[in-house]
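[audit] Reproducing an earlier prediction to check determinism. Same input, same settings, fresh worker. If the tokens differ from the archived copy the diff job will pick it up downstream; this log only records the rerun itself.
[audit] input (270 residues):
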Amino acid sequence: MTTQAELAERTSDAVEDWAGEAKRVTSRVAFISGGMGGIGTAVCKRLAAAGHKVVAGCLPGYDKKDEWLHTMRERGHQVWAAESNVEDFASCADMFYRVSATVGPVEILVNAAGITRDGVFKRMSPSDWYSVINTNLNSVFNVTRQVIEAMTDRGWGRIVNISSVNALKGQFGQTNYSAAKAGMHGFTKALAQEVVKKGVTVNTISPGYVETAMVRAIRPEILKAIVEQIPMGRLAQPDEIATLIAYLVSEEASYITGANIAINGGMYMS
């Protein structure tokens, strides 16, 4: 007859075995471009907490890379850094070769790299236009192209592109940024159709204004006016964005693809 102590021991062993098996199944290599920014860091933390091996993309020679890695690893996260210029296809190809060789093939991709160069269109310089288009949109091609074939060959992959509320509604002084971010979702819908039968999902999220260093740098009177336009009456927290992304890259979100999910506190409803 099985005693209560023996039953408890067996149950404990079964739970440990299940937990170990679950970790083996769910632990994947995730790459986040712009992974050391405000939203990017939150995504890295969230995916690392879920048990994934996380690689944060950054520019070559980024001076805060070592400090970022030290802080993340001190908190017990499995994180690595990978340097490249996301505007350059060859640089991205070299980076992903190194990531695959040292950490493993990328199965989760989050395109989070982005910059702003705001200005009214009639005074916008070609440099400001092309910088934003190259970093925010062309980078999505340069990065995604490196991983998509291996994802389809394996029969599993998750891609999330971070767009913006301003891609949906437009924004004065942001023709370059709004155009680039809107282009991301066109990319998402087309690619999703190409890989849907290969076990790969491709989605866009469109955050509103998020409380990051970039947003906090906005002049106080302008930021106050922005917040007043948000029905929820506050900025989004980076963790709220990261939680949505964590869901979209999970097994549970396998039926969502080609979508654009707004997360903007009611600022723009479509």
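[audit] rerun output stored. Observation attached for the diff report: The longest helix spans residues 4-26.
[audit] end
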